[in-house]
Amino acid sequence: MLFFRKLEAAYYSVKANLNTDLQEADMRVEISKLKLLSEMVAYANRYEYLNHKRTKQKMKAFLSSKYDYAGVAKALGISRNSLEVSVTRASKKLELRLGSALDRVLAGDVDGAAKEFLIGTGQLLPRSGFVEGALRLLPEPKECPGVDWSVAQPELRLLKLLHSETLSGLIQGHDNERLQMILFILFGHDGKYATERGNLIQYFNEEIDVAEVIQSFQADTIYNISSLNRENVVD
Prior knowledge:
- This protein is mainly α.
- The chain folds into two domains: 3-126, no CATH class; 172-232, no CATH class.
- It contains eleven helices and no strands.
- The protein is elongated.
């Protein structure tokens, strides 16, 4: 079945349910379904999922005709077979974007359907959840059919670590005042913390370890061990 027909059937089925004697809670669910299905129909009618103007014209004429292949083909001066190919391709493209959402609507999962609709239509971009600048450090997206998913856990964990929700959880598990002080030293311009700032920069550049940073913060002298080239020190 064409996805266009499936979407239309779902819309009219839910709309018909509103004319039945439903409990208040069930009625609210059906209204939510119809609202989301209306958004899906509106998306289908915008033809944003199609690339070529000519294909959009074909689909607009075809759907307006209520699936009249012969009549539309004749009106457009093309063969029926050509129109059928265009319609089938357009249907598959739309299903790729709305198929999961429609399945969830039919299963009664309106919240899940709404999320799938936003994802499928590009309104909820996964990129927006990643820490700013993190994606620039990663390789460009590319389809790699030969990937062995059985050993992909490290890569998935890495990407999850770079996601803002994961980092937010990690931050909440640390002392707020200590974080504030470290950030003040690192990004501030107070001259009395110049040595500590230098040590932090060395730490983030992996030139010294965290124990040396802590030791320098606790030292009473500006001549802390992290600022020395220990290879040149003679006992």
